[in-house]
Amino acid sequence: MWRLWKSRNAFYYRGEDYEPSSVVTKVQEDFDEWNSRDDLEEKDVNTNPVIREEERWTPPPHNWLKCNSDGAWDRTKDHCGVGWVLRNHLGDVVWMGGRRLPKGRSPIETEDETLRWAISTMVRLNYNKLIFETDCIELVQALQERDSRPSIHSFVQDMHHLLAKLGEVQVVFRGRKSNANVDRIAKEAPSFENNAPVLFSIMPSWIKSFVEVEKSIV
């Protein structure tokens, strides 16, 4: 009916006339297009949201610890924030750390500083069997390839030296959605009074809800 109405208006207002066979063809095209649209809408309605494995935090194996790290860099501010959280296979927080730092030259330098601090802290605490997770894929690639860009070369070399002291260790990339806890710490850190590192063995109130959400899926 819509195509017939459009053909009628074209003839009435613009003097355009169409052969009946042409109108029939257009009607069929409109019908096919409408059906395909219905199919798409039906797919949208029937598609349930799925949390992909890489989009949520997962616990480490038994007897291992997992340390997630993240940095918050803002070109409009004088300071950046870095943070990490160490958890066991039950999702319990063992330690977490936050620190305000003078803003680095780029986001990747902030991520480097964050991971290096996390690794050095684990060395001092004498932990073993560790998985370090970061959402900075460039950093993970630099550690794997040992051929990093000049601006982060010294960071990478330091991290290799520190990692060698930890025994069984992995450094892996995970998506940002699996790093929500440390993202919250990193964004809170610029509000700290000074640049001194802060370690928490008891969760502060502003992070507790984030940890509990991720722990509930363990």
From TrEMBL:
SUPFAM superfamilies: Ribonuclease H-like
Organism: Raphanus sativus
InterPro entries assigned to the protein according to its UniProt record, in alphabetical order: RNase_H-like_dom_plant, RNase_H-like_EbsB-rel, RNaseH-like_sf, RNaseH_domain, RNaseH_sf
Chain segments annotated as transmembrane: none
Gene Ontology molecular function: nucleic acid binding; RNA-DNA hybrid ribonuclease activity
Domain RNase H type-1: 68-189
Gene: LOC108820455
Cited Pfam families: RVT_3
Name by which UniProt lists this protein: Uncharacterized protein LOC108820455
